[in-house]
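Look at one such:
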Amino acid sequence: VPAVVTGKPLNIGGSEGRQEATGRGVIICMDEALRRRGQDDPSKIRLVIQGFGNVGSWAAKHAYDLGYKVIAISDITGGYYNEKGLNIDDVMAHTAKNRHGLLEGYTEADPISNEELLALECDVLAPCATENQITEHNAHNIKASMIVEGANGPTTPEADDILNEKGVLIIPDILANAGGVTVSYFEWVQGLQSFFWDVEEVNRQLRRVLIKAFDEVVNTAEQYHVDMRTAAQITAIKRVGDATRTRGIYP
């Protein structure tokens, strides 16, 4: 019964594109937000990514393939910075050869601390590591004009207030890192149908779903004059409320 569980290997009914889906979704949301701002030349955008695990590495890879300049990355061994932009293919080759899959020993970048990485001059900061990385203690130091949350809860409520006052656009985790669970949904759909898509179809459908969700959140933010995180919550709660009014609570 292949639809019972998702995240399966391909040979027992898994979905193409699942491994990289969360990181890809982060960049889809970032790309759409930049396009709406009129910043449609990727080569002019400096991107900093905190974390180089499954989410951060695939986000970096997709951004690099689109032509964005990834100037810094990090993992538990520290940050790695190159103002001219990192070759992410080389970085991923390095981590693949490293016994623990870490960035440690990468020589084509300058070592920096985590705090220095978060405070770098850049256009977009993507925290893709762990929660509570941007707090009231370091939010004032952030120079990015956009934050795209690849991790769950990387920004504290106190930091949210500071960043919103500074005019920083925060694309919240509930939207920005939804790519993985979206492709898990696709895997369920494919399992029910016993008809499996190629990776191009998975990526096309992922982009369609995320852009639609992005549009809904932006429209809600504009309607209620709130930030993107609040708008995402309003949008989600409204869906539940509308369905309850139509169908009733039970069954």
Notes: DSSP finds nine helices and seven strands in the chain.
